[in-house]
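Hey all, quick one. A colleague (J.T.) asked me to put the flavin-adenine dinucleotide job into the tracker so the inputs and the structure tokens live in one place instead of scattered across chat threads. No bug as far as I know, just bookkeeping. Sequence used:
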Amino acid sequence: MPLPSDIVVVGAGIVGCAVAYELARRGASVQVVDGRRPVGMGATQASAGVLAPYIEADERNRVLFDLAVRSLHLYDSFISRVVSDSGVAVRYQRTGTLEVTTSDERMATLRNVAARLEAQGLPLGLFDGRAARAEEPFLSGDVVGGLLVPAHGFVSAGELTRALAAAARSHGAQLIEGSHVQRIEEVDGDLVVETDRGPLTGNAVVLAAGSWSGQIEIVGLAASVPIRPVRGQLLRVMWNGPPLRRVIWGERCYLVPWDDGTLLVGATVEEAGFDERTTVAGVRDLLDAACDLVPSVWTAGFIGARAGLRPASADQLPIIGPSQVLPNLLYATGHYRNGVLLAPLTAQLVADAMLDNRIDPALEATGPRRFGRL
Ligand SMILES: Cc1cc2nc3c(=O)[nH]c(=O)nc-3n(C[C@H](O)[C@H](O)[C@H](O)COP(=O)(O)OP(=O)(O)OC[C@H]3O[C@@H](n4cnc5c(N)ncnc54)[C@H](O)[C@@H]3O)c2cc1C
């Protein structure tokens, strides 16, 4: 079968836009379709944009850890290429993270993690409570220590997604907003994407519809794509006083300091179906957690809250790889808590597979096959 050149990407979140950009940049003719407008209005608009594969490294699945580290390594060049191709500014910083704890037991775990990562040559700082407060003077007196990872960073997920869409367009991609995809079907060797505003046809499709991926009918598939929504709420407050120096990651929340004085406080993890509303309970839990971690948050101005549905698979790994049922349908979904971090690598893996028939060994673990005949 010839390699595809005419590709429809379903979903214009950060994953769909990154994939569309990479495919268009490598010469494919690309249409990106999304039911909402503008781009990035799914989980992506709620994301904190933290790029931190080594956080909670002890709890991460090994495959996910390796993917996340690979993707972080791509980030500097990814951002400079996207900014240069789009002409859109993207706020992106590699100020590091400080993962802190108030429990001696967790501190022992952080010491083990640090020893393991240090053996891999990763620059780190391991601090007791006093040294952690010397690094971040606003931290609570209850903090008993922390692990600093200077390689980590954060990015504005919204700006990056808009820049990716513009960069894709600069390479000829067409963006179709406000068209809801209902069905994908093979007709005479092409793939037809049925939308509520008419069909789109290509010789390949990338399904990047985040939490809603399972709601799109794929003709010939016995089951739907096994992705469930996991709601996350995130707050924005206006910090008073000298800025925090880096992302602070606690046990019940994390804080992301922007240089405009705003602070993001994330994030809840809730099974709430497809309900995208913010809630009093979510806001209150996050504010309590933030004030416990950094008591001066009490004096911050409250700006607002947002919520998004993280697309989760049963094993918390993304689903990236070709369908076994429809030739030239490829999945790029299920990125759960790491879609922003994994966007550059996902785009690369998809474009390598689709345009060059290069199947990265990672697709063995991320492929849809692990959930049956998809
Ligand atoms: C509160 C919160 C904090 C987070 N923080 C981080 C973080 O710090 N770092 C990180 O890496 N990740 C983070 N994430 C996770 C990250 O946001 C997601 O993994 C990522 O946004 C998923 O991107 P996506 O493009 O797959 O999905 P989405 O952004 O949800 O995009 C899917 C798109 O598909 C479209 N779509 C769906 N169905 C259809 C249809 N039938 N027809 C047409 N279009 C359709 C939707 O409209 C949407 O635009 C966070 C998530 C949340 C909620």
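Adding what we noticed when we looked at it: DSSP finds eight helices and 21 strands in the chain. The first strand starts at residue 6 and ends at 10.
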